[in-house]
Amino acid sequence: MPKEKKVRPPQHQRKRPGRQYKMRPQPHSGARDYIGGDKLKDKVAIITGGDSGIGRAVAVLFAKEGADVAILYLEEHKDARETERLVKEQGKKCLLIDGNIGDEKFCQKAVKRIADEFGKIDVLVNNAAEQHPQESITKISETQLERTFRTNVFSFFFMTKAVMPHFRKGGNIINTASVTAYQGSSELVDYSATKGAIVAFTRSLSQALVDKHIRVNAVAPGPIWTPLIPSTFPTDEVATFGSDTPLGRAGEPKEIATSFVFLASEDSSYMTGQVLHPNGGRIVNG
Question: Does this model's pTM top 0.90?
Answer without folding.
Answer: yes
